[in-house]
């Protein structure tokens, strides 16, 4: 188990889930492994007021109302659609919920333009069909079909990217709750067991590519996840993810709190600039999400570990920030250049601290890329 590049939540937190299950005496919907309150506790972590014998770590950061609404939806007849900007933690929340409720978060279909009905229903093992004919044994169930048979949660990532055919097939699965297999003469219907539901995610920036049909919309409850703009929660997310990353790479390195502040501050500044921009050319292509902040810090940490002296410096952080955000040339570079001149430079004069090194590192990175 330890040599997985990235363990699914039910494996990573198996011990915590076992413990929660052992103390859980609340009523559980269907075949859920945990009661709704315990699912919420697993996702949002424990507080002293919960009076538990041990601490449960917070894994997803955001308003508890989103988590509660998601849990209630999954106990209802409808699917759950988590929608929001890129990097707002939708997939991570979906994984945590599936892990807590079903102990399986890996029954996932990825929505792309190439996703077909087979991917959400079933396909055939061709060599077995040739040898033995079509039967349940030669059928390959999709992750969604498997979730139906087991009465657990299936996931559909990036729902809006799939074509309308696929979306239509999903409508019938969500309303009839069975899949028929017309190729077979008998045993040709797979019924969903109680507990089956779907958590889908959709990126709000993708919308319009394939606008969801109103029939499908009615079968989902929408939970809109906003970009975290509260600096304190954002700092917590970044810290949580970074400590995990360091552990995974077995890196011993301290992230100085003032560098974390600089990272959060510069993202906040750049978001404010994007909000007041009047055209797309004046807006960074990046959504400036928390996930991207984590990416910048990860990049800086690895750079310092591989090529530096294992100390995270402001110059390196600036280089990683520019490198990650300058996707379009010249537009993004111009925006960053303007930010560096207009904001970082004066701040480095006024506030001092690590800002002068941040200023220098960013200048160099911009010059290299220009
Ligand atoms: N609110 C949050 N709580 C905890 N972690 C978060 C949060 N937001 C983002 N993250 C972290 O950011 C990373 C990206 O999140 P995730 O993949 O879930 O985003 P997403 O909303 O699904 O984005 P996309 O629309 O691009 O698929 C994950 O590693 C996740 O842990
Ligand atoms: Mg996602």
UniProtKB/TrEMBL annotation:
One GO MF term: ATP hydrolysis activity
ATPase dynein-related AAA domain segment(s): 79-220
Pfam families attached to this UniProt entry: AAA_5
Name of the featured protein: ATPase AAA
Species assigned in the record: Dactylosporangium sucinum
């Amino acid at each position: 188990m330890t040599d997985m590049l990235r363990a699914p939540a039910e494996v990573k937190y198996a011990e915590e889930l076992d413990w929660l299950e052992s103390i859980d005496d609340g009523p559980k919907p269907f075949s859920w492994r945990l009661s709704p309150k315990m699912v919420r506790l697993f996702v949002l972590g424990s507080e002293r007021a919960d009076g538990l014998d041990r601490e449960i770590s917070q894994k997803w950061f955001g308003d508890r109302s989103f988590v509660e609404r998601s849990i209630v939806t999954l106990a209802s007849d409808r699917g759950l659609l988590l929608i929001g900007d890129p990097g707002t933690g939708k997939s991570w929340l979906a994984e945590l919920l599936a892990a807590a409720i079903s102990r399986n978060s890996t029954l996932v279909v990825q929505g792309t333009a190439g996703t077909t009905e087979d991917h959400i229903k079933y396909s055939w093992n061709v060599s077995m069909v040739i040898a033995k004919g079509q039967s349940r044994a030669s059928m390959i169930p999709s992750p969604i079909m498997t979730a139906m048979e087991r009465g657990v949660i299936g996931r559909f990532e990036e729902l809006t990217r799939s074509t309308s055919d696929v979306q239509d097939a999903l409508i019938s699965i969500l309303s009839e709750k069975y899949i028929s297999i017309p190729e077979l003469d008998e045993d040709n219907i797979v019924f969903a067991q109680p507990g089956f539901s779907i958590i889908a995610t959709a990126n709000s920036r993708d919308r319009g590519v394939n606008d969801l049909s109103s029939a499908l919309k009615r079968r989902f409850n929408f939970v809109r996840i906003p970009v975290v703009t509260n600096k304190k929660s954002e700092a917590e997310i970044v810290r949580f993810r970074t400590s995990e990353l360091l552990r995974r790479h077995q890196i011993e390195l301290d992230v100085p709190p003032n560098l974390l502040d600089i990272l959060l501050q510069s993202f906040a500044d750049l978001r404010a600039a994007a909000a007041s921009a009047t055209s797309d050319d004046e807006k960074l292509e990046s959504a400036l999400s928390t996930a991207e902040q984590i990416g910048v810090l990860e990049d800086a940490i690895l750079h310092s570990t591989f090529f530096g002296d294992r100390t995270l410096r402001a110059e390196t952080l600036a280089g990683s920030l520019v490198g990650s955000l300058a996707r379009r040339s010249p537009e993004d570079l111009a925006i960053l250049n303007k930010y560096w001149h207009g904001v970082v430079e004066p701040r480095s004069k006024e506030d001092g601290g690590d800002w002068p090194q941040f200023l220098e590192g960013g200048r160099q990175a911009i010059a290299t890329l220009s």
